[in-house]
Amino acid sequence: MSDDEIVRGVTAEIEAFHDFLSAWFRGDVPRDDAAFDANLSSHWPAGMVNIQPAGGAFPGEEILEKIRDGYGTNPDFTISIHAVRLIDVVESGTTSRVVATYVERQRGARQSTPPENDRRSSVWMEREAGDAVWLWRHLHETAIR
Questions:
Q1: Contact 121, 142 (CB under 8 A)
Q2: C-alpha–C-alpha distance, residues 127 and 96, integer Å
Q3: What pairing do the DSSP bridges indicate for beta strands 49-51 and 135-144?
Q4: What 3-state class would DSSP assign to 4?
Q5: pLDDT tens digits along 108-128
């Protein structure tokens, strides 16, 4: 797979993940366990770690539970993704491993201070050849002041 194909795939993954996440918090998608799992949970496997902008490190399962409980609680919430950049790509057998950075712009975020905030994020993802789902192994979000 070429770097351009990987950039397009990783960008699409990051955007789709955040689009569903913000729609979930707004209540713009049905409150459906299968959709939640297909769009979020299946992308964050056991052992995934999310480091929040304030520095706390949480297992993905804990963050997903908070997200699940937050359905429809933030009707004005939006996220846009900018400046996706590949840092490293490793192809090993049938597995592609990617480290990428991106800027996440949150607007109307009731659970963040300030509610209008930007985050520079680094993500490590991997995917097996032929698999449509990128697995997020590590996500580190840093507030941009």
A1: yes
A2: 5
A3: parallel
A4: helix
A5: 887 777 778 899 999 999 998
